[in-house]
Design goal:
The protein has 300 residues and is α/β, with parallel strands linked by helices. It is 37% helix and 21% strand. A six-stranded mixed β-sheet has the order 13-9-12-10-11-16, sandwiched between helices. A five-stranded mixed β-sheet has the order 5-1-6-15-7, with helices on both faces. The chain has a three-stranded antiparallel β-sheet with strand order 2-3-4. Helix 3 packs across helix 4. The protein binds glutamine (GLN).
Length: 300
């Protein structure tokens, strides 16, 4: 966090440069290298389509994410890093494309993929029937699920105890959906950033947070006095969102994901980040942090 703030303060003018370079931190040099490599692999694959034709901007693979979701995507210095960032970089490398990251609100990711502003949505995004109406999903690359975070000493011990409580979620996520649809008489506070919801629990402003398990571990490690309840709420799978109009890219992504499972690359990436939960997150350093929820409703 400190590191990020320093960088932020010192380089406000560099912000434009950063966004132009893409938040994955791919350099021009990297791109030149991978382009050469991949011309060869495309030929080997016998694809009739050149990789450059696969994306909205020729030669560039734009992935949309919400970099508030460690260890899948989060800020480190001026880059977005994490499991999904490494997957995006690997896919770009295999396709010989320059990789650019667009960091946006979680609920803007699917619209960005639909409009072609982004080629891929890679955001710890759960395959979900509503989303499937608008985008295609790749084959899943990891299993996940929602958990409950409460303050230590809370009277909430299981999901049943959530009825009637004030529950924080990240706006537009499956956690939001779960609480809104399943918890009787809950007041749902929706945050843009999951960590802000956890801080609200810490400060006693809300009773609980429902959020994905791995970010939950990282957030709780950075918010003293909070804890995760043992019982997971849901079973979900993360996959990559691709436009329904771009089946060629979907096929390439699935091919690369299968290769990554086979050659151990996926395990290597996942273990690198999930193997060490001791490292605290870069807590909301990205903002003039307000822990106010952006939206509140009462669930059915
Ligand atoms: N897995 C959850 C979802 O898809 C949360 C993802 C996120 O917040 N990045 O809705």
């Amino acid at each position: 966090m400190k590191k990020f703030k320093k960088v932020l303060a010192a380089t406000v003018a560099a912000t434009m440069l950063i966004s132009m370079a893409g938040c994955g931190g791919t350099t021009a040099d990297d791109t030149a290298e991978t382009t050469t490599e991949n011309t060869a692999s495309a030929e080997d694959g016998g694809s009739s389509e050149t990789p450059a034709d696969l994306t909205s901007n020729e030669g560039v693979l734009v992935w949309a994410t919400n970099a508030e979701f460690p260890p899948y995507e989060y800020h480190e210095g001026d880059s977005v890093v994490g499991i999904d960032a490494e997957i995006a970089d690997y896919i770009g490398e295999q396709l010989g494309l320059e990789v650019q990251c667009e960091d946006m609100a979680f609920d803007s990711i699917i619209p960005a993929v639909v409009s072609g502003k982004a080629d891929l949505g890679i955001a710890g995004m759960t395959v979900d029937p509503d989303r499937l109406e608008n985008v295609n999903f790749s084959d899943p690359y990891v299993n996940a699920g929602q958990v409950i975070i409460v303050a230590e000493g809370s009277d909430i011990a299981t999901a049943d105890d959530l009825a009637g409580k004030t529950i924080g979620v990240q706006l537009g996520t499956t956690g939001d959906q779960y609480v809104t649809e399943n918890i009787t008489d809950a007041t749902v506070e929706r945050y843009n950033k999951g960590f802000e919801a956890v801080q609200a629990v810490q400060q006693g402003k809300i009773d609980a947070v429902v959020i994905d398990g791995e970010p939950a571990k990282q957030f709780v490690a950075s918010a003293e006095g909070t804890q995760i309840l043992d019982e997971p709420l849901t079973e979900e799978e993360y996959a990559i969102a691709v436009s329904k109009d771009n089946e060629a890219l979907l096929n390439e992504v699935n091919k690369i994901l299968a290769e990554m499972q086979e050659n151990g690359k996926m395990a290597e990436i996942v273990n690198k980040y999930l193997g060490d939960n001791a490292e605290a997150v870069d807590d909301g350093a990205t903002q003039e942090s307000s822990d106010e929820a952006v939206e509140t409703t009462t669930a059915a």
